Amino acid sequence: MEDMDASCAEYSFGATLTVAQVSQVKQALSEILARAPSSIYLQSDKIERIDAAGLQLLLSFANQCHQEQRSLQIEPISDCLAQSCRYCGIALSQLSNQP
Predict the structure, then answer these.
(1) CA 99 → CA 16, 28, 39, 69, 96, distances in Å?
(2) Are the CB atoms for 68 and 36 separated by under 8 Å?
(3) Whether 46 contacts 13, CB under 8 Å
(4) What CATH code is carried by the domain that includes residue 86?
(5) Structurally, how many domains does the chain consist of?
């Protein structure tokens, strides 16, 4: 995790985003929100395995960013994440927003 500047924050996911990692990742994302950046960039290109808990975390975080009028971009999107979203009927546009 690294800060780009005071108004932007960035987080890079590891190779796995499953129920085993959700608590730790949720904590890291909560810490980002606590710093109140207006833009958040999540890099998912390393994700090789994701389950329903990981997808739920991403959707919940995207909804929270939308409610708080924060810009969220998840790029680049790994093939695994894109395929999992398609399989579950989730549009990739649901994971990013530009308030």
Answers:
(1) 29, 22, 10, 5, 10
(2) no
(3) yes
(4) 3.30.750.24
(5) 1
**Alpha-carbon span 96 to 61, nearest angstrom:** 10
Question: Which pair of tokens denotes residue 81?
Answer: 């994440």
User: What is the domain range of residue 33?
Assistant: 2-95
Which residues lie closer than 8 Å to 3 by C-beta, 6 or more apart? 9, 10, 35, 37
Is residue 64 within 8 Å of residue 33, measured between CB atoms?
yes
Which residues neighbour 62 within 8 Å (Cβ) at sequence distance 6 or greater? 72, 74, 94, 95, 96, 97
Burial category of 47 from C-beta neighbours within 10 Å (exposed 0-12, middle 13-18, buried 19 and up): buried
Beta carbons of 1 and 28 less than 8 angstroms apart: yes
Q: What is the pLDDT of residues 35-87, one digit of tens each?
A: 989 999 999 999 999 999 999 999 999 999 999 999 999 999 999 999 999 99
Phi, psi of 93 (to 5 degrees): -65, -20
